[in-house]
Specification:
Helix content: over 70%
CATH architecture: Up-down Bundle
Oligomer: single chain
Strand content: under 5%
Structural class: mainly alpha
CATH superfamily: MFS general substrate transporter like domains
Order of helices and strands: HHHHHHHHHHHHHHHHHH
Shape: globular
Number of domains: 1
CATH topology: Growth Hormone, Chain: A
Radius of gyration: 20 Å
Number of helices: 18
CATH class: Mainly Alpha
Length: 406
């Protein structure tokens, strides 16, 4: 419920910026406001998550982000129409999220034994895809209603954080576990961040997973072009714009619901590269699709490929990382995904302004396919990586202990 509310705000910010400027570049520049805090604070937040109770950290962040959402609602009701204020509030949201999200992502491997981790990540992805479907579709309806508009999106998001508080409060404590490590976790700071980066650098499988994700998000993510393409082809109807992102969610939801066979995949690196290539090809087709049904179908295909990519990447990250490093590596994973998406929106918006939205989306999708092939050739260790789940002994399994606490 809280994620659906956040989706309403993301939709509202994109549409409000576009309505103020009529510029795809200005929409893409939302990424600039998020990029720096995600990159700097996100890595530092990962070191903090490896030192404190992650549950308490998430609760504190929830309080802060609720206040930011309330401010967004206030500016909409006041009719300020201030572009710089929107960018500032988005930057604050990104700063808080860069601390909260890496800590939140460490919950699943603590709640489940390793052999059930991939299924747990798939279920988490189902929740995300429900948000992608319900959030934008609901946002389109709310925005189209004269009595609500963008103000309604911001207000409902603020109220929805109550669900987030309830969910986190019901969890047991989430203090970092030594997990067999020989050294205690470093204090939050540059040294701790450097240790996490060094761990990733010397693990070529992790590096390959992050590069594959960066490729998909930087070159193949044309969300900044959605308002312009919708206006150009479908008359700018806000309900149609909502269907764009909702279609990605539908494809992802179907893919997550049918993700059981993924547990039989052993060459997960190769499978991830194939999914990234399908993602890029789908967006290239979206760029030139003339009809609405074909446009939505290709977006759904992209969403399906994205879910496979996320589940495989999450499995690789969580199974190759000890808990003492999990906050920092998960933070790097979050930064790569989030910053890559913002860079992708900026790149797509800038190229779309210089050329056209169609050319920007088409070239980005084709570039994604080409770079996936290059990564496969350049990182054979990642391509050959085979997942071998370890079934813990009953006395060492964290699953039953945590469930009993719950």
């Amino acid at each position: 419920m809280s994620s659906v509310g956040s989706a309403l705000t993301r939709y509202a910010v994109v549409l409000q910026v576009y309505e103020l400027t009529k510029s795809s570049f200005a929409v893409g520049a939302i990424g600039i406001a998020q990029l720096v805090p995600l990159l700097i604070i996100g890595l530092a937040g990962g070191s903090l998550a490896d030192m404190v109770d992650r549950r308490k950290l998430v609760l504190i962040c929830n309080v802060c982000v609720t206040a930011v959402s309330a401010t967004l609602a206030a500016q909409a009701f006041a009719g300020l129409h201030s572009l710089w204020l929107l960018y500032l509030l988005v930057a604050l949201q990104a700063s808080i999220g860069s601390i909260s999200q890496p800590a939140r992502r460490t919950f699943i491997p603590r709640l489940l034994p390793q052999e059930k981790l991939q299924a747990g990540l798939a279920l988490d992805r189902v929740s995300f895809q429900v948000m992608l479907i319900a959030g934008p579709a609901l946002a389109g309806l709310i925005t189209a209603a004269p009595a609500l508009g963008l103000r309604g999106c911001y207000l409902i998001d603020t109220l929805s954080f109550a669900a987030g508080f309830y969910g986190v409060l019901r969890l047991p404590p989430m203090r970092p576990s030594p997990d067999g490590a020989t050294t205690a976790p470093a204090r939050p700071g540059l040294r701790s961040v450097a240790q996490g980066v060094s761990y990733i650098w010397h693990n070529q499988v992790l590096a390959g997973a992050f590069l594959a994700d960066l490729n998909a998000t930087i070159f193949g993510l044309p969300v900044a072009l959605f308002p312009a393409i919708n206006a150009e082809r479908f008359g700018g109807d806000p309900r149609t714009l909502g269907l764009f992102t909702a279609s990605i969610g539908v494809g992802g939801l179907v893919s997550a619901g049918l993700s059981g066979p993924l547990k039989h995949l052993r060459r997960q690196g190769l499978a991830m590269l194939v999914a990234v290539a399908i993602w890029g090809a789908a967006f290239a087709g979206f760029a030139i699709a003339a009809s609405l049904w074909l446009t939505l179908s290709l977006l759904a295909l992209a969403g399906a490929a994205d879910t496979v990519t996320v589940v495989l990447r999450g499995t690789i990250v969580q199974t190759t990382t000890p808990d003492t490093f999990r906050g920092r590596v998960t933070a790097a994973d979050f930064v790569v995904g989030a910053d890559g998406g913002e860079l992708g929106n900026l790149e797509a918006g800038a190229l779309g302004s210089l050329t056209s939205p169609t050319i920007s989306a088409l070239t980005g999708g084709l570039a994604t396919v080409a770079v996936a092939f290059v990564i496969g050739l350049a990182l054979p260790a990642f391509t050959r990586y085979r997942f071998k789940p370890q079934v813990p002994e009953p006395e060492h399994s964290p699953g039953p202990a945590v469930v009993s606490q719950t």
